[in-house]
Amino acid sequence: MKRMLPVLCLLLAACVAPPAAAPTDVPATAAPTEPPFVPTDAPAGAEPTAAPVPTVAGTLPLEALAPERIEFAAEDGTPLVGTYFPPAQPEAPGVVLVHMLNRSR
């Protein structure tokens, strides 16, 4: 037992965190006062116009993917309420999330 005491003390001394280094003063750099110039092809004084939103073939509009509230009864008669998010692709697999198990929704 007396032999274990020095070994235990050495192990405990090794567990002490090293001293933290003192932070050094770093001079602050000056922030730019003007935004950088970005060249454009538009003539000076022209009104900016919105770019058209690109569409991808085979995608549905966001309105078609809106969530729907659904209600149905389980086999034991317990009413179940949930939110259905339709898939963007008809071949997509279904996923059921029960993250609030044993809760009201």
Helix and strand content put the structural class at little secondary structure
Q: If you compute it from the alpha carbons, what radius of gyration comes out, rounded to the nearest whole angstrom?
A: 32 Å
Question: Widest sheet: strand order?
Answer: 1-2
State the assembly state of the protein chains. Answer: single chain
Measured by DSSP, the beta-strand proportion falls in 5-15%
- The tally of strands reads 2
Cα shape: flat
H-E string: HEE
What's the story with the biggest beta sheet? Answer: 2 strands, antiparallel
Helix content estimate: 10-25%
What average pLDDT do the residues reach?
75
How far from one another are the termini? Answer: 61 Å
Low-confidence stretches: none
Number of helices: 1
Describe how the helices and strands are arranged:
Elements: H1 4-14, E1 68-73, E2 79-84
Antiparallel strand pairs: 1-2
